[in-house]
Amino acid sequence: MRPARSRARRRCEVECLPGLDEIVCEEIAALLPGQALVGESPRPGRLPVQTLCPPWELENLHCAVAVHLSLLFEVPRPKALLGHQHFTRLLALVRQVAVRRPAGAFSAVRISAAGADSAVFARLRAELERELGLSGSTDGGDLLLSFRRPADGSPGWEVLVRTTPLPLSARSWRVCSMPGALNATVAQAMVRLAQPRPDDRFLNLACGSGTFLVERLQTVPARQALGLDIRPDALQCARANLEAGGCAPRARLLHADATAVPLPSESMDTLVVDLPFGMLVSSADEIRALYPALLREGARVARPGAALVAVTAARRLFEACVACEPAWRQERSLAVRLPYKDREMTVGVYLLRRA
Fold it and tell me: Which residues pair with 68 in a beta bridge?
């Protein structure tokens, strides 16, 4: 009697924001228990994954930016990919992604690589679009291909194909955005850091466009979900996003100051706040006054043992304020790199616990 054949694992790569790697690994383990093996990250924000199930299952991750199919080509230069044998393999890889989507989901091939504007990549792009029947227009999503050298220095070129027309971080519920709106994958990671439970009373201080509220209510329900902001336009934007996400009936929005919350003491189980908005305040003195006032007011409305999860670009200021506020103790912190204009900025994500 022949031994049962083991199922082959499929290679792919999960992209996340640098600094959220650990959170995404935890989410992969919860989403596909025993089905996915995460390797050592060769680059910040890149997680090689071998999975026994179809890689499309990884598209259900909420903290990831994208999922890519991965294949190594033992060629000295990308030009060799235009040869019949290698181009056939490349086309088969790309077709695995393209055939899963309805017609029109992808409109063009986009190349991400050093020298992406070269004649070689222009020809590769044109050949792929011709074979796949793509228009090359910008009307739909991109069929994104990335070309790079292996991280371990071995010869050849790696080709990665993003499995979705848009990044996973591009949420369909975001119909209204505001300057400085928090990246949804960061908000989701922060929601998870607080270990949400269905009986939580959840409060989003300075809720802005409602990112935290939608991310929480679409993944784990809450007994009570409140968002407050002092700006009427922010509340209007949050309401639009909650409605688009199907969460409006389960959330309540309050017009109020985050340092003077109209709620009873010790009434909330989880508090979240995006503090980069404080960077827009006109003076440094106002910012320095805002953080300790918000921590004090948060401590007042938080029940003993409640979680406060905060994100801020002013990390030194926030850490100094926490050190001076005995009501809170810090349990965990993450340094997350976010795209900002034409560069990156590092923000701090903090999990505090009400003493």
Answer: 13, 162
CA-to-CA distance for 249 and 256, rounded, in angstroms? 20
The 10 Å CB-count burial string (b at 16+, else e) for 276-302 is bbbeeeeeeeebbebbbebbebbbebb
Kindly report the three-state secondary structure assignment for every residue of the chain: CCCCCCCCCEEEEEECCCCCHHHHHHHHHHHCCCCEEECCCCECCEEEEEECCCHHHHHHCCCCCEEEEEEEECCCCHHHHHCHHHHHHHHHHHHHHHCCCCCCCEEEEEEECCCCCCHHHHHHHHHHHHHHCCCCCCCCEEEEEEEECCCCCCCCEEEEEECCCCCCCCCCCCCCCCCCCCCHHHHHHHHHHCCCCCCCEEEEECCCCCHHHHHHHHHCCCCEEEEEECCHHHHHHHHHHHHHCCCHHHCEEEECECCECCCCCCCEEEEEEEHHHHHHCCCHHHHHHHHHHHHHHHHHHEEEEEEEEEEECCHHHHHHHHHCCCCEEEEEEEEEEEEECCEEEEEEEEEEEEC
Local confidence band at 139 (pLDDT 50, 70, 90 cut-offs): low
Query: What pLDDT, on the 0 to 100 scale, is given for residue 282?
Result: 44
Residue 15's identity, in one-letter code, is E
Q: CA-CA distance, 211 to 202, in Å (whole number)?
A: 13
**Cβ contact 353:328 at 8 Å:** yes
* d(C-alpha 348, C-alpha 274), whole Å: 10
Task: Assess whether pLDDT exceeds 50 at residue 2.
Answer: no
Residues 316 and 333: their CA atoms lie apart, in Å, by: 13
Provide the pLDDT for residue 283. Answer: 62
At residue 236, what is the residue type? Answer: Q
Short-list 208, 201, 161, CA closest to 186:
208
Question: With pLDDT > 90 as the criterion, what percentage of the chain qualifies?
Answer: 83
Query: What is the rounded CA–CA span in Å between residue 105 and residue 139?
Result: 9
Report whether pLDDT(146) > 80.
yes
